[in-house]
Write a structure and sequence with these properties.
Blueprint lengths: L5 E5 L3 H13 L3 E5 L2 H11 L3 E5 L7 H10 L7 E6 L5 H7 L5 E4 L4 H10 L4
Parallel strand pairs: 1-2, 1-3, 3-4, 4-5
Length: 124
């Protein structure tokens, strides 16, 4: 499968992972998942997906740190990152993350919100 149709979801909440996975499959993506930042980074380095949806509060490597590690790596920097969080909200966190993410979604989000976000960053 081409890079343009691969994605990873990194979230410690199984329900969120499964829901977002089903949505992305519906958009034609091959989807990988991880429940923590360490495993997520391993998959990102191996698969080099076009899209990474990363919860900011995950075990292992914190989501904010993980976003930075991806964007700082020249081999991974073109991966589109959508940060998601139920805890991190508001302009302060968007400002902190502005150089390491392509979009931010507050949980809970709906299918249309995710679809609009993915269209805005041009992955669908």
């Amino acid at each position: 499968m081409s890079k343009s149709k691969t994605a990873i979801i990194i979230d410690d909440d199984l329900t969120t992972r499964k829901l977002v996975e089903l949505i992305l499959i519906g958009f034609g993506f091959q989807v990988f998942t991880a429940e923590d930042g360490k495993k997520g980074l391993e998959i990102i380095k191996e698969k080099k997906p076009a899209l990474a949806i990363i919860d900011l509060l995950i075990p292992g490597i914190h989501g904010i740190k993980l976003c930075g590690l991806v964007k700082e790596d020249p081999e991974l920097a073109d991966i589109k990152i959508v940060a998601i969080s139920a805890v991190y909200t508001g302009a302060r966190y968007r400002l902190e993350l502005k150089d390491t993410i392509d979009a931010f979604l507050e949980k809970p989000f709906d299918v249309q919100g995710l679809e609009d976000t993915l269209k805005n960053i041009k992955v669908i």
